[in-house]
Design brief:
Helix content: 25-40%
CATH class: Mainly Alpha
GO molecular function, one term: ATP binding
CATH superfamily: Transferase(Phosphotransferase) domain 1
Domain Protein kinase: 62-333
Distance between the termini: 41 Å
Organism: Sistotremastrum suecicum HHB10207 ss-3
Strand content: 5-15%
CATH topology: Transferase(Phosphotransferase), domain 1
Protein name: Protein kinase domain-containing protein
Number of helices: 12
Number of domains: 1
Shape: globular
Amino acid sequence: MRIRGAQAKTIPQQNSAFEVLGGIEKRWASYQPWLKTIGYSLRRRYQPGWKASWLTSGIPERESEDSLVLNFRALVLDAIRDSDGRRVALKLVPTRTKELPIWQYLNSPERASDPRNHTVPLLAVHPLPDTDEHVLAVMPLLLYYDTLRFETLGELLSCLYHLVQGLAFLHEHNIAHLDMCDQNTMLDPGSGQTGLFPKGFHPVRALCYVPNPKSPRVASNDPHSCRTLAQVNYYIIDFGESVQFESFEAREYITGATGHDLDVPEFATNDPYDPFPLDIRATGDMLHTAFFKPSRGYQGLEFLKPIITEMQRDDPKERPSAMDVLSKVHSLLEEQTLTSLRTPLRGIQEDLGIDKDDARKHIYEARVKRYHPIQPPIPGLKTEEVEPMTLIAKILGRLRLLF
């Protein structure tokens, strides 16, 4: 499920564009009665007979839950699984592509149980009642991996490791993703008091939630937790452009531009290219933007530039494999101390949404709870053990939070 809090689309009160369903929304709403029979419920906006709540509630449109629309063309929509109340995402998957077979292959019991596999879980598949051109796939409700800023170096390096590990797993199984980008890199924030958003989050505007289910009003879900305490998981989604080969020996060059990252040397000509180095380049471009672009990046990450620069080399044959990148990141992690991993990050631009006071509180709480700054844990990683804090250290830490 592709969610980014800043991309929720609302409009001024005088504009009525969201008073009616638009685009594919009408299709989703038409499916609600059928979805109910197979155990899923959509939000109020997509229920039969829906009327815009802000027309009569007195709540401004921008504060009304049912004004929040992911995208008028979205093939993905959030829902509730009625059997257990779990929040899920529903996706209309074209049957003409290899997306579903690849997704199912990666979700086989053997592969799904492999901790190196960061493919989004496939919870269920349902044939649609009105067409065989798509099927309905059910997956967990996820957020973009950068919905909240990284607070510590350990959080950032953990994310880097697990995403590269997921790509290496795909390549090990002779699958080239062909659309590695921000939009397809996700995190599971967890749920309840132990999740990243203890109050919950809205599927479209992640930094808000609905305090009262009987009211459409949304409110800020501050305060948030952090990735270390919530112990989030990272996933790769969307295999609509992907290719899979039967074996390493059966790999072939392919043709045609694909994916979000079109500014790569392979697409400068019509010549066939190896799809696997293309994944490396696209991932390197994504990471370079996330870590070093002034409007998004962080200070103190110069030690990562050699690895990412290698991934961005123009000559595909000079780019490292995903396993090579993973090995280098693993080595970098083992060089870090607990102190360095707990280092609070600062944006290249100081006002980039990292709350220093919250970060200090979270770092202190993680130390008290003896949480390692690398979460989720990486099996086999040789790092310092987290020792219990002494009473004096706890008192001093608490005092530092006050001043």
